[in-house]
Each structure stands twice: as C-alpha cells, then as structure tokens.
UniProtKB/TrEMBL annotation:
Organism (species): Limnofasciculus baicalensis BBK-W-15
Subcellular location(s) of the protein: Cytoplasm
Pfam families per record: Abhydrolase_1 (PF00561)
GO annotation, cellular component aspect: cytoplasm
Designated name of the protein: Alpha/beta hydrolase
Domain annotation AB hydrolase-1: ranges: 35-130
Main location: cytoplasm
Keyword match Kinase: no
Coiled coil feature spans: none
GO MF terms, alphabetically ordered: hydrolase activity
Family per similarity comment: Belongs to the AB hydrolase superfamily. ABHD14 family.
Length: 205
C-alpha cells in the first residue's frame, strides 16, 4: 500500500497492487470483521459512494467499508486478466473477512463470475441492476448466498425481469424496487437505498 492520505470524514485514499495493476480504493471504519465492499458502474467510481454518503453512513454503524476504482476507472490502472481472480486477490489483500459485496451495473461483469466460483468468500451480495445475469443464470442456480437485488422501477437499461430471474436461480435472494428511480437508482432514491442496504447488512450480520 502507498499514497495513504486522509480525506474528509476520516475516509482514507489508498492504493494496492492486484495482477500487476495499481488499484485505488477508499476506506472508512474500523478494521472490523464486518465489512462491505463497494464496486461501481461504468459512469461512476469509488468516489460516488463517498459523495452520496454510503461510506460515512456504514462506518458510523461500525462497519469497515471499502470502495474501489475498478481497473481502468477512477485512478486505477487498466491491467487485469481474470475478473473473478481480481476480486479474490483484492479481498485477500485488503484482509476483508467475508464481506458483503455491493455491485451495480457494469460491475456485474466482476461480481457474477466471482459468486459462481467463490460465493463462500462472501457474507452477502447486493446486486444493483448488474449486467450479465442471463449469461450466468444457470451457473447461479442454487447458490444460497444471502442476496438483496435492488432495482429502480424505471430502469431502462437492465429490465426488472432480470431481477426476477436472479430470484429464480438464487433461493436466498429477495428484490427491492426503488420507486421513480432509473438505472443508477441509488443516485435518485439515495435515502431509501441506504435504508434498504443497512437493513440487509444488519440482517446478514
């Protein structure tokens, strides 16, 4: 790790190396066993979760929270090989003990194959309209990881029907619709998103 600098609200900005790439992440909260790892969508970065208050909210509830810039986004380098192995190494390097994984939109390309291979390394999964569900539907069949699928009711990019497909495959999954919100529903219905996320995290831990 290097470039350790203090940010607002005690959020730390750090780098680590994964698959020969310098990866940037934000971190808040104590080094607790209860942790949450945030990925991001194509138009966003780790900083999004700081800006809408997710990191501060969960840190104040005594969770360790980490938000990463995926390879090629934010200030992370764009060098990588295997998406599931990237997340496995990241979780190991950060010493996250079975975190809850929050994965919106584009980051489904990382989280879904990771769950297929390494569901036992997580305590829970919060897919937020992730891409790629139909391509992994058969492989997700029967995975019992506690899952909260969050969708905007007006999502025009990833249809709500894909949330229902996820629920069909994963027996421990449930769905929340954020009303009058689109694809990046956490930006429009932030308070309700935080309420549902926190309730799920508390139920898992």
């Amino acid at each position: 790790m290097n470039d350790n600098q203090q940010m607002n609200d005690n959020i730390k900005s750090n780098y680590l190396e994964i698959q020969r790439a310098k990866i940037h992440y934000l971190e808040d909260g104590e080094s607790a066993t209860k942790s949450v790892l945030f990925l991001h969508g194509a138009s966003f970065s780790a900083q999004t979760w700081q800006e809408i208050g997710s990191l501060k909210l969960l840190a104040e509830k005594s969770y360790r929270v980490v938000a990463i810039d995926l390879p090629g986004y934010g200030t992370s380098q764009n060098k990588f090989t295997s998406h599931p192995e990237f997340l496995r190494e990241l979780i190991q390097e950060l010493n996250l003990q079975k975190p809850i994984l929050v994965s919106p939109s584009m980051s489904g390309g990382y989280s879904l194959p990771f769950i297929v291979k390494y569901a036992e390394k997580l305590s829970g999964f919060v897919p937020i309209s992730p891409v790629g569900i139909p391509g992994f539907s058969q492989q997700l069949q029967g995975i019992t990881l506690p899952t909260l699928a969050i969708w905007g009711s007006n999502d025009g990019i990833v249809p709500v029907a894909q949330a229902d497909l996820l629920l069909e495959m994963m027996p421990n999954a449930r769905k929340i619709l954020l009303q009058n919100a689109g694809h990046a529903c956490y930006m429009r219905a932030t308070d309700e998103f935080h309420k549902q996320l926190l309730h799920f995290i508390e139920s898992v831990y």
